[in-house]
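Summary for the steering committee. The consortium agreed at its last meeting that each partner would contribute one worked example illustrating the joint modelling workflow. Our contribution is presented below. We chose a case with several input lines so that the handling of multiple components could be demonstrated. No manual editing was applied between input and output; the record is shown as generated.
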Amino acid sequence: MDTLHKSKSLFEPSIVGPAIIDSIKKLDPRHHIKNPVMFVVLVGSIFTTGLYIQALLGHGEAPASFILSITLWLWFTLIFANFSEAMAEGRGKAQAASLRKARKDILAKKLSKPEHGSAYEKIPASKLRKQDIVIVEAGDIIPMDGEIIEGIASVDESAITGESAPVIRESGGDRSAVTGGTRVLSDWIIVRVSANPGETFLDHMIAMVEGAKRQKTPNEIALSILLAVFTLIFLLATVTLLPFSIYSITSAGHGAQVTVTVLVALLVCLIPTTIGGLLPAIGIAGMDRMIQANVIATSGRAVEAAGDVDVLLLDKTGTVTLGNRQAVSFIPTKNISVKALADAAQLASLSDETPEGRSVVILAKEKYGIRERQIHELNARFIPFSAQTRMSGVDLGDGRQIRKGSSDAIEEYVKKLDGSFPEDLKTEIASIARNGGTPLVVTEQKNVLGVIQLKDVVKGGIKERFAELRSMGIKTIMITGDNPLTAAAIAVEAGMDDFLAQATPETKLKLIRDMQTGGRLVAMTGDGTNDAPALAQADVAVAMNTGTQAAKEAGNMIDLDSNPTKLIEVVKIGKQLLITRGSLTTFSISNDISKYFAIIPAAFAGTYPALKVLNIMHLATPESAVLSAVIFNALIIVFLIPLALRGVKYKPMPANRLLRDNLLVYGVGGIIAPFIGIKLIDMILVALNLVR
Amino acid sequence: MISNNIIQSGIFLFVLVLAAKPLGIYMARIYEGKPAGINTWFGWLERWIYRFANINPEISMSWKTYAVAMMFFNMFGILVVYVLQRLQSILPLNPMSISSVAPDLAFNTAVSFATNTNWQSYGGETTLSYFSQMVGLTVQNFVSAATGMAVLVALIRGFVQKQVETIGNFWVDLVRSTLYILIPLALILSLVLVSQGVVQTFKPYTKVTVLQPVKDSNGNMIEEQVLALGPAASQVAIKQLGTNGGGFFNVNSAHPFENPTALSNFLEVLAILLISAALCYTFGVIVRDKRQGWALLAAMLIIFIPCLLFCIHMEQNGNPLLNNLGINQKTSALQSGGNMEGKESRFGIASSAIWATATTAASNGSVNSMHDSYMPLGGMIPMWLMQLGEVIFGGVGSGLYGMIAFVIIAVFIAGLMIGRTPEYLVKKIESYEMKMASLMILIPPIIVLVGTATAVILTQGRQAILNPGPHGFSEVLYAFSSAGNNNGSAFAGLSTNNIFYNIALGIAMFFARYWLAIPTLAIAGSLSKKKLVPATQGTLPTHTLLFIIFLVMIVLIVGALTFLPALALGPIVEHLMLVGT
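What follows is the complete predicted structure of the assembly.
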């Protein structure tokens, strides 16, 4: 990740400035109507503003200065909440702006016929439509998303991926999709446009990071309902206090009625403003974190679903194992020394530039001390692998002919030369295959020397990651084209729960469907067109950016780094999003206990002085108590903005422990923190002589 | 005597938990249609009822049909009880020739008994004939309890069934609850009660000569007393078991003919919580995870036990005003000590406080002492237990489905905190369930707060208050807490037999019952349609101590935060003023 997606410091001045202006603009009631908690605060603020004006005119229910301070802090509460949202959006907007740079209005070379060399006219890219054919030559910017129908080119996609190394794009196969706004560095390609202006990948991406098309996710809706219910309950609890207070005074025969200002203050303190105010920011920041991880999610719903995933389908190659097999041991047949076998194997592989071949040379050197020789010094001739012989090898100057290949190819070769394939080797070969390895038999003419054991090398540290996933309750399934024996062995070695061997698009699709019928949520990665059906079926489908258009369209996320292990990151981010919401909800509600102890004795001190006993924080005066609670309520939003934007820290662990830890921090912490905070604010108010 | 309080509470809880398991297993077998003795012997009767009523027991209903059947049956019940009271004077079994009941009171009483509330704005012996008590009220005592159990069973099925559109047959659930659970238990209990001296007769009230003649306020000598009688035992048994609570006599189970001995008292108070506690176990059995049932029972006990001990403590401590006068309220060989006002000396502090706590934890509402006479904080416990939404045991059936609504809220918040869409008992909890569960926790506080506020504003509401100051406020708050949570116990000290209270409380009871039952059925329907989600390491276990405590916190916080301001103006300030003076 470089320039484009580098993570920005949380409070970067270029974002904070516009965010402050935005948070004032967002005071518009139309903006708040969607968020019942903050809407109540807005109405309350307007109400107390009215009370303040009334007090100025001389009919105030309380001193004008007191009403003013409450009113101001209620407005601050709103502005702080807006600020958190504007901050989250601002980070997205900054990214969108740099993406937009890639979308300069460029001229496209529209071809009259889909052939190289035919005439073209130059038209603005914005005039292109689906199915138009364009030619893009070295140095040109690709005008629109499309599919290469002819040609091959190296393309600089850094504008989208932030990855500066060029990638190869060619017609046919899995690398035929190109993205508008990227630049062709060499050669030429003919592209069939696959999106209309405004619908391109870049457009989607810009809309996404700006949060413009953000829809509420199912969990967010459920949480909004819960918050609305709490708001309604507290609204009733405070509104009914007015008649209760009036009755209390009539029956006690003395005392002052609770002021509406105090009731509004109590209401705003009780309703879950902390989570209500930060909720939009948390959602936007979640998307933002995905983008930081170079993953573009097509919807917030997908991000959230990622947290719920309980089955991960991972391709073996590139995800579980390094791309290539490596030689791990030499097993000679009877009467042959290991050294002789290693020597022959090395000779046969000297000119074999495949990773497998190189690994044989390395193994021979490291384990048996056979130094590397130069093939021309030996006066030898390299016999490359061919589909007919299914062997490769070397013919040495002294007449030795060494061959290596799969066991049945060598067996055939040996039999032709009237040799026989040693029986003891067959058992070795079977056992290698059973353990997930690939046997490569080495022979010198008709004398079979032994077998090289090639093995898939499981990526370092991957086993621990799978163990982590298992502790989160996520099952990992390896997808491979290998036979079941090999697949099983690798799955065991990598610590995966299950595997699908000899996978085809159909078996993959069926596996996903079966899992879903069993109530599981499935995530997978894919890049090829043949992955598209399975991607479309999976609940969370991460398509590689290098993949085909079909795969990208079928997925609901695109990984710009095209890194299959990214899925694990995606799951984490999804979970973190939910955890942040849950923790702040708990925190917000836990806060209420202390606020009661601050406001109730203050509110009714005029009616029932005996209630002063409940002022356990010993707040100086009723005014300072109410004001301190309101100030705390507003400031806590600001303090929690970094947490909302960054997300609660998440380490994979069993559910019960995770709940316990978060409850201790946000539940118990949420009960204790405001007692301290309110008391501190009260002390400051008194020290500064700001309250009576 | 402190040890006496602890021993009594301990024995009570021990027997309760002990009895919950076998009864829970029995009820699970009844609802699952497995042979359990009585249902094989009386299967012919059940089948005959279906044939007679033209019901096809094989048909499973959608949640909406189920709700319509439930509402139809209950509306019909309200109508019948109303008509019976209005025509009382011309109906049989009225040896004392009691006149017909006024329309507002008849409405209130009809709603009260059909909703399993049993709020009584009347005195049984002076208002209702034997016929009204038996055919009207006792029948409703059975079927209103059975309705609650039916709704619960439908909800439990929602957790067990997968991908079906239906939630069971209301009529079958109703008949089985009544026939195999309520009637046998009530029969056994009423026989034992009769053995203890609870009356069961159709004879008219008798006149007896008093042992110690007294002068009344006019100076007339009183030498004779009328003893009210009637078929009490049969009604007392079911009013306890079915969390109904409507006494045969005005003073309910403080009356010696309803509750004569220590044994009858123990059995009656046990009966209050018995079915509600056992249903937790039934729940565990039917969902094939008994730990889930124990977990809910544990959550209830975690709230119940401290409330009980606190209530006993406040009462045993006595009245500080009496201490100031130099009166000895200490426990000694000669006196039980503590605040004995409004308590039967037969029962004393512990038995009264256990009853008061149990009857309000469960939505029973029967009393063996006068809650109005409790110390302010002692009386706050029963009020607060009702305000928690009647989920600590609660009504038979309704208590547990109310608790499950809280569980849904709890798993939702807990689910978010561990980063997963919440699940409970292998079903995903989504926004529809959240909507309905939110409705269920929202309705009772609305009713209580709005009702109380209306009453203290209106003159009709205020005139009925007999005590001034915070205590008077507590009386109104208690009445609406009781009606708004279908409890039915009264704080007394409030003359509620007038048009305002009869109508207002009637409406409160109606909404508190059905606006909770219908969302419950909606949840049942929605859950039934869902797939089962297999549990994994990432699934939050809902039987652990951690989750139980979390659930308790959610119940307490919703209850406490909603009502703390109101309680501060009632019992809390009353207590502080009492201590302060």
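The radius of gyration of chain B is 23 Å. Chain B touches chain A through 67 residues (CB under 8 Å).
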